[in-house]
C-alpha cells in the first residue's frame, strides 16, 4: 500500500543555493584542481542558453542535431557562471572557459543525468514529498493518467498531472510541449505541485523521456505498464524494438512497485530483472480482471463500455476494449491509494477526455469522432471499436507526422484501407518533410488493401470534405491530432483545432 507524505508540512524550496551544496548531487571532475567559487550562489539550472541569467548553471546537452556546447558562450554572456558538460567535450569547454575567467566548469560522465539530478537538487527534491505514479505504454497513457487524476481528485486527494493533454500543478493547467517535459522543466513543475499542496503526481512517462533520462532522480512509488506495440522505431526515436522495450523497462528500475497488463506478452520481459514487485490487471489474465464486458453499448447516450471488476459494476461513456484496460489500470492504481472500488466506478461514470474518442454530431444523422490515434495499433483499436457500432459508412481522415518512423505510414495506411469504407489521406504535422511524400507512403499501405481513398493535402479541406459527404448513420473518424490545437509545417505552428474545424464544417453543411 502507498503511504502519503503530507506536502503541507514541507518547507518551501529556497531558490538560492551555493555551488558546493548543489554539486553534492553529482560525481564530477572540475576543470581546475579546485573550485574557485564554491560559495557562489546559484539562481537556477538551464539547458537552454536563452533562459540563462546572472548566477545560473548551464548544462551542455548533446543532441541528435547539435550540441549544447555550441551555445555555451551565449549562456556565459547572459550570466551563467558554471558550465556542466560531458567529459568528451573537455577540449571545447576548456577553450570557452579560457575566455571567461570569472566562470567555472565541471565534466561529468552523462550530462543528461547530471541535468536531472542538479534540477532535482535545486528544486529541493520535490518528488520525495509526493506520491509519484508513472504510466508508460504505446497507447492509453493519456487516458489512464486522466482517469487516475479524476478518481483521486473526486476522492479529495489533490493530484498534479503531467501528460500529452497538458500539465496541472494543482492550481492551473498549461499546454504540454512534450508528453514528458525535459528534466529541468519537470522538476520546476514538481516544485510547483508541492507548493500548491499536491499529495500525488501522476504522469505519463514516454520511452523517449526514459531514453533521454528526463526522469532521472525520481523514485516512483508506483509504475504502470499498459502495453507495447510496433511504434516509435526510427532515426529520431528508437533504433529497434529491443531498444524501445529496454527504454520502457527503465521506469521499473526506478519504481518501488509496479502494475502490468497481464494480457500483454511484453509484461514479463518489462519487469524481469528490475527487482520491482508487480501485480497484474487484464481481461484474460491478471490478478484484477474485468468480467461481463459490454464493449459496444451506450452509456448515458454515448458509445461506451460496461464491465464488472472486484464485484463492482463500471459504466464509462467511452467505447472500446482498450477503455476497459485503461480503466482497470486506473482503478487498480487508485485502489492502492486507498480509494474504494465503488468510488472509482462512480468517478468514471462521466469520464471524457478532449480529443480521445470525442463524438460530435453532424447535421443529417452522422457523427464525427476526433481521436489522437497516431500509430497503427491505436488506429486499428479505434476503427475496430467503431465498426462494432455498425455505421452506414466509416470514413477515416488522417495523415502521419513528419520526421517520425516511416514504417508507421505504411502500417496506418493498411489498417485504414482494410477497416474504412473510405480513407481520406491528408497532412498531420509534416514538420520539415514534404506532405505529398508522406501521403505517398501512406497511400502505398492503402493500395495493398484495395480500399477506396482520396488524397487531400490540406487538412482543413479534408475535414470539410468528409463532413460534407457524411450521410445518415455515417461515422467520420478524424485521427492523429486529437487535443492538439496547432499544425507544424516547415518549423512554423499554425492554429488548427479539430473540434472548431468540425463545428465550422457543420455550420457550412447547414447553409
UniProtKB/TrEMBL annotation:
The UniProt record gives the binding positions of UDP-N-acetyl-alpha-D-muramoyl-L-alanyl-D-glutamate as: 49, 179-180, 206, 214
Listed A to Z, the keywords are: ATP-binding, Cell cycle, Cell division, Cell shape, Cell wall biogenesis/degradation, Cytoplasm, Ligase, Magnesium, Nucleotide-binding, Peptidoglycan synthesis
Q: Mention any one GO cellular component term assigned to this protein in its UniProt record.
A: cytoplasm
* Keyword Iron set for record: no
Free-text description of this protein's post-translational modifications in UniProt: Carboxylation is probably crucial for Mg(2+) binding and, consequently, for the gamma-phosphate positioning of ATP.
Which stretches make up the Mur ligase central domain? Answer: 135-334
State its location(s): Cytoplasm
Q: Where is this motif: Meso-diaminopimelate recognition motif?
A: 428-431
Which residues belong to any copy of the Mur ligase C-terminal domain? Answer: 355-482
What PROSITE patterns does UniProt report for this protein, alphabetically? FOLYLPOLYGLU_SYNT_1
GO biological processes: cell division; cell wall organization; peptidoglycan biosynthetic process; regulation of cell shape
- Write out the catalysed reaction: UDP-N-acetyl-alpha-D-muramoyl-L-alanyl-D-glutamate + meso-2,6-diaminopimelate + ATP = UDP-N-acetyl-alpha-D-muramoyl-L-alanyl-gamma-D-glutamyl-meso-2,6-diaminopimelate + ADP + phosphate + H(+)
Enzyme Commission designation: 6.3.2.13
Pfam families reported for this sequence? Mur_ligase (PF01225), Mur_ligase_C (PF02875), Mur_ligase_M (PF08245)
Name its pathway: Cell wall biogenesis; peptidoglycan biosynthesis
**Which InterPro entries did the record assign?**
Folylpolyglutamate_synth_CS, Mur-like_cat_sf, Mur_ligase_C, Mur_ligase_C_dom_sf, Mur_ligase_cen, Mur_ligase_N, MurE/MurF_N, UDP-N-AcMur-Glu-dNH2Pim_ligase
Q: Gene3D superfamilies, from UniProt?
A: Mur ligase, C-terminal domain, Mur-like, catalytic domain, MurE/MurF, N-terminal domain
Q: Which residues carry this modification: N6-carboxylysine?
A: 248
- Keyword set includes Cytoplasm: yes
Residues that, per the record, bind meso-2,6-diaminopimelate: 404, 428-431, 480, 484
Q: GO molecular function of the protein, one example? A: ATP binding
- Domain Mur ligase N-terminal catalytic spans what residues? 41-121
- PANTHER family the record matches: MUR LIGASE FAMILY MEMBER, UDP-N-ACETYLMURAMOYL-L-ALANYL-D-GLUTAMATE--2,6-DIAMINOPIMELATE LIGASE MURE HOMOLOG, CHLOROPLASTIC
What is the purpose of this protein?
A: Catalyzes the addition of meso-diaminopimelic acid to the nucleotide precursor UDP-N-acetylmuramoyl-L-alanyl-D-glutamate (UMAG) in the biosynthesis of bacterial cell-wall peptidoglycan.
> What protein name is recorded for this chain?
UDP-N-acetylmuramoyl-L-alanyl-D-glutamate--2,6-diaminopimelate ligase
Q: Which organism is it from?
A: Sellimonas intestinalis
